[in-house]
């Protein structure tokens, strides 16, 4: 599924393209599933044009799970037939995972978690890496209390589970319809909106140790009265948090972190809830669903 120029989901078309070239240090992956993330349609609209080169036709998608089809020169880590998953963000946007085949550096992938099916594995990389790296940056530890915004979303739902695995108590913001889901992840749900600080203090009278903002819309600023140090407020969606003394973070590809996530999954402490699973040809509908901002967990395209 490709775009001929920057635009919306209406520009996505089934497109015949040559098989990707496989550079030294890369593998060719036969895609079984591709995760859908908001950054996919934001990139397609030109939102990252100031910082990232793009080429057309552009195949979107940075999350993938699939089978190694071929290996490039000097690749000893993988063999044909190996099952892998990864966050395959390259230096420029063109050949993504919304395809039958995609090439990726071995630095961007890891063995697929044995406990996850293809759709779960495809939904894990970007969201899981974002959550894990944010928790690390916020220095979340055993016995602490953490506020996770958008706890029912793709990143937030994994963030709740990772924080719990680290031994933290988690309070998670979510709409009321998602409160039971948030509880099932191990968090104590609170509703968004006016009065949030008072609702959180009702559960944690002395505030929280860290705030992880996975939604934006001023959530980080609204949470400042709850945390002792603004340096433990992080956002992946609001760059203005830096001016408040917090951190604006952007996920980085990491094989080591993917291996850590897979270990957590196979240990039974981390799972991926796939809300919508659509065939690749329905990528435009997947973007429409994503734009509504109401997905519980992840949207995945199957190939």
UniProtKB/TrEMBL annotation:
Keywords linked to the UniProt accession: Oxidoreductase
Protein name per its UniProtKB record: NADP-dependent oxidoreductase
Domain Enoyl reductase (ER): residue ranges: 7-301
Protein EC: 1.-.-.-
GO MF annotations, alphabetized: oxidoreductase activity
Pfam families in UniProt: ADH_N (PF08240), ADH_zinc_N_2 (PF13602)
UniProt key word Oxidoreductase: yes
InterPro entries, A to Z: ADH-like_N, Chloroplast_QOR, ER, GroES-like_sf, NAD(P)-bd_dom_sf, Quin_OxRdtase/zeta-crystal_CS
Species, as recorded: Nocardiopsis lambiniae
Signal peptide: none
Keyword check for Oxidoreductase: yes
Domain of life: Bacteria
PROSITE patterns per the UniProt record, alphabetical: QOR_ZETA_CRYSTAL (PS01162)
